[in-house]
Inverse folding.
């Protein structure tokens, strides 16, 4: 932010810009979740797709067309076969003079095929469906592709219902995960914004909307180091309001606070985007101007003097008008090796201005 021209400095955090945002600004409202295009919805196979795919070996394909007949038809056919078989056994027994061996031979011959057909047509598919539902859905063996949705009987109808419910559940889980990711991202951004705003408020002087001493202690070393690395100049201007105590004593602290606010606004309007303005406390201010010539510093100081004096002539009703004393120190000219030495040299120039009669600029 501060590098313009020759300074190749590392970026300071957003709070380092002393044209701080409006205190009334609030973090952007967290909008409702929006679909994330990078997250694709689950791909759930349709019944048609499943019917055309290779059947699972665990579910044997029907060998005959009547395997897909309705369950009531199969049961009726089994009852009919049992009745016919019973009639045939009875006829055989009567013709053989009611001997016992036709019963012993005929009943097993009828019961075994009917039992096997009943298991194949009715009990077997239902048992396999129950085993699939009890096994559930696992990453190794998904439930939906193994359902016998290609059957036309009641088992197939049940499989298609389970398939539809499974597809809806999978889609719901995916949408829930997407919603959770979106909300987490929104909450993280809102939290980051709120934290940044709180940090910015902690480094801002509430009266003048300039940076405070905490801001200066945190970011001046980095600014000074960046100018050293780029062999660029850094000018520090110390400002003090003359006769400020007399103004507070005669007109009250409200008038003094208003004068401080006016000076803060004037400084903000005159410095460049890459410059930094700080209120150290009381009526002491500090301006840091990287990559700035002393000629430009003198022009800015003259404009600040003129505007401040114009305001005090109109507003301050006091015999002794407040004025500004300034001292400007240059990192290159004054050979300042540390930020502390730069500020100390600016204070020395400020005291020279005070001793020379106040209302003037020394060091530039």
């Amino acid at each position: 932010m501060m590098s313009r021209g020759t300074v190749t400095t590392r970026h300071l955090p957003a709070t380092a810009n002393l044209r701080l945002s409006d205190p009334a600004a609030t973090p952007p409202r967290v909008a409702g979740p929006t679909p994330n295009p990078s997250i694709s919805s689950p791909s759930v196979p349709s019944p048609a797709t499943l019917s055309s795919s290779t059947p699972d070996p665990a579910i044997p394909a029907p060998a005959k067309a009547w395997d897909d007949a309705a369950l009531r038809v199969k049961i009726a056919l089994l009852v009919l076969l049992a009745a016919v078989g019973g009639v045939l056994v009875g006829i055989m027994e009567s013709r053989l003079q009611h001997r016992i061996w036709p019963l012993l031979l005929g009943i097993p011959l009828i019961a075994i095929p009917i039992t096997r057909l009943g298991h194949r047509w009715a009990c077997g598919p239902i048992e396999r469906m129950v085993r699939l539902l009890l096994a559930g859905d696992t990453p190794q063996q998904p439930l939906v592709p193994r359902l016998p949705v290609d059957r036309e009987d009641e088992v197939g109808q049940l499989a298609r219902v389970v398939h539809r419910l499974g597809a809806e559940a999978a889609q719901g889980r995916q949408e829930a995960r997407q919603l959770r990711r979106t909300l987490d991202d929104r909450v993280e951004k809102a939290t980051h914004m709120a934290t940044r705003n709180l940090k910015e408020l902690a480094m801002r002087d509430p009266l003048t909307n300039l940076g405070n001493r905490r801001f200066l202690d945190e970011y001046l070393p980095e600014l000074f180091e960046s100018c050293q690395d780029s062999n660029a100049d850094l000018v520090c201007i110390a400002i003090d309001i003359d006769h400020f105590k007399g103004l507070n004593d005669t007109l009250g602290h409200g008038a003094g606070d208003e004068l401080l606010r006016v000076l803060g606004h004037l400084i903000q309007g005159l410095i460049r985007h890459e410059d930094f303005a700080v209120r150290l406390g009381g009526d002491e201010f500090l301006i840091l101007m990287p990559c700035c010539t002393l000629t430009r510093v003198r022009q800015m100081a003259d404009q600040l003097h003129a505007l401040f004096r114009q305001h005090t002539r109109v507003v301050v009703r006091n015999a002794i008008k407040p004025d500004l004393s300034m001292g400007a120190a240059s990192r290159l000219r004054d050979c300042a090796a540390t930020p502390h030495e730069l500020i100390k040299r600016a204070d020395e120039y400020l005291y020279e201005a005070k001793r020379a009669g106040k209302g003037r600029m020394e060091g530039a």
